[in-house]
């Protein structure tokens, strides 16, 4: 990684209480592999990849302009991918989650920021290189999503670490409600 760029992504941070409960559940499954640390659990909204450090202020301003309502995220499905990757996912992603990710992507594209063009696949990674996938696992985790954040993915000798670079609250539109004309 060059010093003038950062590997960035926008994500929903997993609250500490939820992260602790998820990690305790995961660890009880005894699947081996490399577990993600509780403080690094998140659900990626938009992956930006390598971006110039000089763009950080622009990305923070862009994020500050997002208007999205809070919602509840329910993770109730355990899935597996290549190389032993295990993750939690919602069986029915909330429409508010999809709108938030779409709004971020639209604003990034309008600002000329290159980002991953793949469709949103909401998931929270749990393990890398898991030795097995449990036959009977019934996750049931939920948390109120009240903010999203910008993260940098930083390589270290002990693996990748995520550093939060900014956090923004979710809030309903600041516009006053429109009243219908009387009948």
From TrEMBL:
Protein family: Belongs to the 2H phosphoesterase superfamily. ThpR family.
Residue positions of motif HXTX 1: 42-45
Catalytic activity: a 3'-end 2',3'-cyclophospho-ribonucleotide-RNA + H2O = a 3'-end 2'-phospho-ribonucleotide-RNA + H(+)
Keyword Cytoplasm appears in the UniProt entry: no
Record's keyword terms, sorted: Hydrolase, Ligase
Domain of life where this protein originates: Bacteria
Catalytic site: 42, 123
Protein's name according to its UniProt entry: RNA 2',3'-cyclic phosphodiesterase
Reported function: Hydrolyzes RNA 2',3'-cyclic phosphodiester to an RNA 2'-phosphomonoester.
Matches recorded under InterPro entries: Cyclic_Pdiesterase (IPR009097), RNA_CPDase (IPR004175)
Gene Ontology MF, one: RNA 2',3'-cyclic 3'-phosphodiesterase activity
Entry annotated with the keyword Nucleotide-binding: no
Enzyme Commission number(s) from the entry: 3.1.4.58
Signal peptide positions on this chain: none
């Amino acid at each position: 990684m060059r010093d003038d760029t950062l590997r960035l992504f926008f994500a929903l941070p997993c609250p500490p209480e939820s992260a602790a409960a998820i990690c305790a559940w995961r660890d009880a499954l005894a699947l081996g592999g490399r577990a993600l640390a509780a403080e690094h659990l998140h659900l990626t909204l938009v992956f930006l990849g390598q971006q110039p450090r000089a763009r950080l202020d622009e990305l923070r301003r862009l994020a500050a302009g997002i208007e999205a309502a809070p919602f509840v995220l329910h993770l109730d499905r355990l899935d597996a991918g290549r190389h032993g990757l295990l993750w939690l996912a919602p069986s029915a992603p909330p429409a508010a989650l999809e709108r938030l990710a779409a709004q971020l992507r639209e604003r990034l594209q309008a600002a000329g920021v290159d980002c991953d063009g793949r469709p949103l696949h909401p998931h929270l990674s749990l393990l890398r290189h898991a030795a097995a996938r449990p036959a009977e696992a019934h996750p049931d985790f939920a948390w109120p999503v009240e903010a999203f954040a910008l993260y940098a993915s930083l390589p270290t000798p002990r693996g990748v670490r995520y550093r939060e670079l900014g956090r923004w609250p979710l809030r309903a539109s600041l516009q006053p409600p429109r009243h219908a004309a009387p009948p």
